[in-house]
């Protein structure tokens, strides 16, 4: 009996789940070790984190306020990845959505609900506009979108700085307070969370039960086969990439109108980049984005809680970076299995 290592095209869900549980265990052990080295009791730190996060209103509100934009940036990245498009530009699209919505919020003289609708459309348009250049470069010139979308993020960041120190200048390097705000559902949790859920459920339904979703799967699975049977590959690339940008822009609008209420540098707080991690955790499933986004939101909120315990805020970046690295390794390992073969005897 001989054994050889074979790579499977689709990783078994059982192996993926097992390896991810192991990864989470490793990350928890490393966090506990870091707490011990810093002179803290890991169990006491864990109790504080869990009791504040789920035992207090402010703690749970903090998780939900992170959860909303993470869910939208996650669905933005996942939708693009359905066609093997890596949207590294969700951060910049988020910022442009926030910028466009802020401009509308500061200059709109209509009733509040009309201004909110216009701001929402402006946020989507801002994200679409910022995705337009990488999209056209990808579709018509074959330029790799990984680089173009990433570079657009830096332009967006400097554009925000220019606006809050120039045309939209207020005080303390930010815009004036935006006079409109989203309706609140519970505490500081606004209606944007329902918008995020709506986007996820609609895309999950479309991708599962419609002809459009089936054709999208075919285009993502085998581009040559899709082109052979007459599917409009370039048309799908244009549509999906622009929708992806619009979703990230909508996340920026919800953040600035619903949570922060003013435009300021760093308003994205890395939520666009973290959307990539959320989409990776979801493993190509729109509905799985919900627990993935909640988990990353919990980690971000944990970082704030740990600052009150005299921990450095960089611990959040360390945890998310380590988690992404180990998950990428474990997901790749899940594709490999040892196979057993029996050597054939001569004459048989």
From TrEMBL:
Record flagged with keyword Transmembrane helix: yes
Q: Name one Pfam family in it.
A: BPD_transp_2
Leader sequence range is none
Q: Per UniProt, what is the membrane topology?
A: Multi-pass membrane protein
Instruction: Give the keywords, sorted.
Output: Cell membrane, Membrane, Transmembrane, Transmembrane helix
Q: Where in the cell is it found?
A: Cell membrane
Q: Source organism's superkingdom?
A: Bacteria
**Which residues are listed as membrane-spanning?**
21-43, 63-81, 88-104, 110-133, 145-169, 189-207, 228-251, 271-299, 311-329
Q: What is its main location?
A: membrane
Query: What is the protein named?
Result: ABC transporter permease
Native species: Commensalibacter oyaizuii
């Amino acid at each position: 009996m001989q054994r050889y290592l074979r790579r499977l095209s689709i990783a078994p869900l059982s192996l993926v789940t097992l390896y991810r549980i192991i990864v989470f265990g490793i990350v928890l052990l490393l966090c506990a070790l870091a707490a011990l080295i810093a002179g803290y009791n890991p169990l006491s730190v864990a109790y504080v984190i869990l009791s504040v996060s789920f035992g207090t209103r402010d703690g749970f509100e903090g998780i939900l306020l992170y959860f909303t934009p993470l869910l939208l940036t996650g669905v933005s990245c996942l939708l693009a990845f359905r066609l093997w498009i890596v949207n590294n530009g969700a951060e910049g699209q988020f910022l442009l959505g926030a910028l466009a919505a802020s401009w509308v919020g500061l200059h709109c003289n209509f009733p509040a609900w009309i201004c909110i609708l216009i701001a929402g459309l402006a946020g989507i348009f801002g994200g679409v506009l910022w995705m337009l250049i990488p999209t056209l470069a990808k579709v018509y010139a074959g330029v790799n979108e990984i680089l173009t979308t990433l570079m657009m993020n830096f332009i967006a960041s400097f554009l925000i700085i220019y606006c809050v120190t120039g045309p939209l200048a207020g005080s303390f390097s930010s815009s004036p307070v935006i006079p409109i705000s989203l309706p609140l559902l519970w505490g500081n949790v606004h209606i944007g969370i329902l918008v995020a859920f709506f986007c996820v459920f609609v895309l999950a339904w479309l991708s599962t039960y419609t002809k459009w979703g089936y054709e999208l799967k075919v285009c993502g699975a085998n581009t040559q086969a899709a082109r052979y049977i007459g599917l409009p590959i370039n048309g799908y690339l244009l549509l999906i990439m622009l929708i992806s940008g619009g979703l990230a822009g909508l996340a920026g609008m919800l953040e600035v109108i619903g949570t922060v209420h003013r435009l300021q540098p760093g308003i994205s707080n890395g939520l666009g980049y973290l959307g990539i991690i959320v989409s990776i955790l979801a493993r190509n499933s729109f509905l799985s984005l919900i627990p993935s986004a909640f988990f990353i939101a919990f980690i971000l909120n944990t970082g704030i809680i740990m600052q009150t315990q005299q921990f450095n805020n960089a611990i959040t970046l360390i945890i998310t970076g380590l988690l992404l690295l180990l998950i990428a390794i474990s997901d790749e390992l899940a594709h490999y299995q040892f196979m057993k073969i029996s050597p054939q005897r001569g004459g048989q």
